């Protein structure tokens, strides 16, 4: 069921808000009982501004904590009670592969965005995407590639990946992007928080270790980082060798 988003209570005859809101405590327990179902949270956000505000402040935060508890604990270990770009944006990043529209971030790649059931994010993998001079201090979590088979034409299968920096505003990667004078993408914005995007390819800050981590052709990797530290990228995956394919089924 699709509900049109309301940014304020209209208080018409059909508006449930005329009877008073359910308390935050009751709504919290209800969504907790539903295991922080993102569909329920998104639907509640469309009811009115009060529900949308509650979802932004509390419900999406609890969803993120339930979906990736160790990662959330690390992202907040600096003492902050918030994350860059809002909890709702981070919640979307955890469960949504952005894909690409034709003529968008990744040129002629045209694959619709879609939700994913479960994705593993790894801090260890994230190190492979950082320039060597940034690996000591910066922390980046990156997902396993979301594979789109037979979507790369003659080049091979495509893999989309996404990630999140810890305290991106204080990171060496951000300082280096600014120092290099890297320009923002002229038209596209982050699909998770609508912030402007830097191209790591344009800045020549994609290390060779990224292709090894992804199992991709080195010259096929491209990724962007937004002002809030969300990362999204695409690569062309290497074909499995006969030995790799056999080991999977042993």
Kindly describe this structure.
- It is a single chain.
- This protein is of the alpha+beta class and 250 residues long.
- The protein has 2 domains: 24-73, no CATH class; 102-237, no CATH class.
- The protein is 32% helix and 17% strand.
- The protein is built from 9 helices and 10 strands.
- Strands 3, 4, 5, 6, 7, 8, 9 and 10 form an 8-stranded antiparallel sheet that branches. Strands 1-2 form a two-stranded antiparallel sheet.
- It is globular and about 55 Å long.
List keywords for this structure.
single chain; 250 residues; alpha+beta; 2 domains; two-stranded antiparallel ribbon; 9 helices; globular
Concise account of the structure shown:
The protein has 250 residues and is of the alpha+beta class.
Topology readout:
Elements: H1 24-33, H2 38-45, H3 49-67, H4 69-75, H5 87-95, E1 96-97, E2 114-115, E3 121-122, H6 123-127, E4 140-143, E5 146-148, E6 158-165, H7 172-179, E7 184-189, E8 196-199, H8 209-214, E9 222-226, E10 230-236, H9 242-248
Antiparallel strand pairs: 1-2, 3-4, 4-6, 5-6, 6-10, 7-8, 8-9, 9-10
Helix pairs in contact: 1-3, 2-3, 3-4, 3-5
Strand content: 15-25%
Largest sheet, described in full? 8 strands, antiparallel
**Helical run tally:** 9
The H/E string reads: HHHHHEEEHEEEHEEHEEH
Note the overall shape: globular
Number of strands: 10
Rg over CA atoms: 20 Å
Work out the helicity level.
25-40%
Mean pLDDT: 85
Which structural class matches the secondary elements? alpha+beta
Poorly predicted tracts of residues? 242-250
Q: What count of structural domains?
A: 2
What is the rounded distance between the termini? 44 Å
